[in-house]
Amino acid sequence: MQNSKVMTADEAIARIKDDDVIATTGFVQSCIPEMLHAALEKRFVETRAPRDLTLIMCAGAGDSKGLGTGRLHHEGLLKRVIAANFGRMPKVAEAAQNNKIQGYNLPQGVISKLYRSCASGSPGLFTKVGLHTYVDPRFGGGKVNTVTREDLVKLLEVEGQEWLFYKATPINVALIRATSADPLGNLSMEKECLTLDVLAQAMAAHNNGGVVIAQVERLVADGSIKPKDVKVPGILVDCVVVADPPEMHRMNYGVVYDPALAGEVRVTVDNLPTMALDERKIIARRASFELPLNGVINLGVGAPDGVANVANEEKVTPYLVMTTEAGAIGGVLAGGSSFGSSANAHSIIDQNQMFDFYHGGGLDLTCLGMAECDSLGNVNTSKFGGRLNGCGGFIDISQNARAVVFAGTFTAGGLKIAIEDGNLKIVQEGRARKFVKQVEQVTFSGQYAADKSQPVIYVTERCVFQLTDHGLELIEVAPGIDIERDILAHMAFKPHIHSPIAMNPALFAEGPMGLLADLLNEGLKDRISYDASRNLLSINLSAWAARKKADVADLQRAISEACTAAGRKVNAVVNQDGCRIAEDLYDQYADMVAYVNKHHYERMARYATSAITRTKLQDALRRRGLETRVYDSAEAAYASLGISAA
Q1: Where are the alpha helices (DSSP H) in 320-474?
Q2: Catalytic residue among 314, 325, 372, 461
Q3: CA distance 100 to 19
Q4: Are the beta carbons of 364 and 413 closer than 8 angstroms?
């Protein structure tokens, strides 16, 4: 006979000792073992034990008002916190900021993968995630205060490259959550919206000789859970606690249970609400023009999550795969208290597996928020305005996505806008500047991204910036906006300004924008014309953007078709004024130019008024053996071919 693993929450929590290291599960407001947190709080308040615990957690797990890990704020309960997010436990964050406890703010994906390191007996994790941010030992090592002295992050060089090594902290107690438990302690998660890291956490605690405490909704008969449905095997589980009352096992703080988020049913989602045409929608609309069709995408909270609504309005959603760092792939991403989950998801994988995918470069695009930005393109979302918020998965995602869009209002706190006859008007400026001389904390390094040729743009309601080798360049301005009055006057630095173009007027008008047609490059053929009398092919790429590899391929196809129709090699003039080529696509673009030059062109000239564009194009073309000058005017380009511009 086996001893029963089922016990009360108080009995299970009684097994936690002073100085234990506790890992707990939960993502924002979902999948939180609330009853276990409540029992731990109750025991400490009544007995002043256990004391001096170390808490390890990934994303924030609470409501920011005292639930979840917010219950663990009592002085003496915690000695150290290692977390990606402090914003959902503000009293714990306050204790860290006041030097009452030790604190580390590390990337969410790193912490998630460190559970596996602990489980396998590895001393830690090698990764490039965090280089050149505040997590880098050269810039603080992720320590949040002066009483935190132990180094958990080391900078090492391996085969000539810089790496960070994150030290694993052995875990004594894992507080996890599942739906069902059988008499052997086997756990299944059929009614959970996410699986997160429960298996890795349980294995880490068990293999360290610790205790695994599982909160479940119900007990089921022996053998009723199919082997492949067992998420955590009973050999890892020491204590099973049935949630009582049931409110302690809500799917999240705002939803008792939603079968669509659990993947048990599929629901109709065609009728998502249409966003009002305000600053948030303008930002989401502009960001949507960066979406890679058939690509894999991650959206952050705030302004970025409006991209999903715009994509639905514009009928683009079937061409995209949205993901969350919590493990949801596909479907319609949920917001509010359900953030991190997805209705009609294609699949749900463990959080640490999702970060394997993200860290390895699997994301085609991420759209994230920004609290502060400086002239070098550095972004801060982790510590600002006296508040320790934490990085969450921001560093993991932004450093490894193929392309990044930072999205947010130009100023914060009271901004009011109006749209009049297609023009944007600033009715009331926000109280706080976002574009500052120097960010308080570097959560994203602009220089590191530029060194990697990572495409990065910064989208606001009134303008768009692009990251260059020299910092931020203003590339687009909304109609009705005065650069001096509405942009520069509210920045602590002056960005590079060469030849900014107007933001797409469709962003500021009611009705569909034709986003899908734009992303499919259906209008490319209309940008190309052929004059047989002069044997001249004119290619107008003004305000066109090569955002992904498919765009370059589409352009090559359109040019080849036009030249084939001409029936002979042609002279070509290319207008690249206001044309934006993503930083990592210049070489592919040059390959395309080399191809059409060899197969279709007699002679060719191109022009752009932006000095940065000219330099980058010329450098890329010369790397392909094309000694092609990019002229600064149409007149000069035509003259080089001995052809009049008229």
Answers
A1: 351-359, 394-400, 446-451
A2: 325
A3: 16
A4: no
Instruction: Please list, in sequence order, all residues whose beta carbon lies within 8 angstroms of the beta carbon of residue 624, skipping any fewer than 6 positions away.
Output: 587, 590, 591, 593, 594
d(CA 176, CA 27): 12
Handedness of CA 176, 216, 357, 85 (dihedral sign): negative
Q: What angle do CA 515, 362, 444 make, to 5 degrees?
A: 85
The pLDDT confidence band at residue 270, using thresholds 50, 70 and 90, is low
**pLDDT above 50: residue 1:** no
Q: What is the mean pLDDT of residues 375-401?
A: 96
Encode burial over 244-281: b for 16+ CB neighbours within 10 A, e otherwise: eeeebbbbbbebeebebbbbeeeeeeeeeeebebebbb
* Rounded CA Rg of the chain: 27
Handedness of CA 375, 544, 460, 475 (dihedral sign): positive
Distance CA 125, CA 114 (A): 6
Nearest to 121 by CA among 53, 198, 197, 203: 203
Residue 304 phi, psi (nearest 5): -60, -30
Give the tokens for residue 445.
């390094």
Tokens at 21, concatenated: 């290291």
| 75 given a catalytic annotation | no
Give the pLDDT of residue 271. 62
| pLDDT tens digits, one per residue of 620-646 | 999 988 877 899 999 999 999 998 876
- Average predicted confidence (pLDDT) for the chain: 95
Structure tokens at 560: 């080849």
Separation between Cα atoms, residue 538 and residue 563, nearest integer Å: 11
The pLDDT, as a whole number, for residue 499 is 84
Work out whether strand 463-468 and strand 456-459 pair parallel, antiparallel, or are unpaired: antiparallel
Q: What is the 3-state secondary structure (H, E, C) of 249-270?
A: HCCECCECCCCCCCCCCCCCCC
Neighbours of 624 (CB within 10 A): 16
pLDDT tens digits along 484-512: 999 999 999 999 998 899 999 999 999 99
Q: In degrees rounded to 5, what are phi and psi of residue 316? A: -100, -20
Q: Is 413 left (phi over 0), alpha (psi -120 to 50) or beta?
A: left
Give the bridge partners for 211, in sequence order: 173
Structural contact between residues 86 and 55, judged by C-beta atoms closer than 8 angstroms: no
Beta-strand relationship, 379-380 and 239-242 = unpaired
Return the residue matching tokens 């249970």: 257
What are the structure tokens assigned to 26, written together? 């939960």
Q: Contacts by 609-617 with C-beta closer than 8 Å and gap 24+? A: 609/498, 609/499, 609/577, 609/633, 610/498, 610/499, 610/577, 610/578, 611/498, 612/468, 612/470, 612/473, 612/496, 612/498, 613/498, 613/576, 613/579, 613/581, 616/581, 616/586, 617/576, 617/581, 617/586, 617/589
Chain-centre distance for alpha carbon 421: 34
Span 392-398, mean pLDDT?
Answer: 97
pTM above 0.70, yes or no: yes
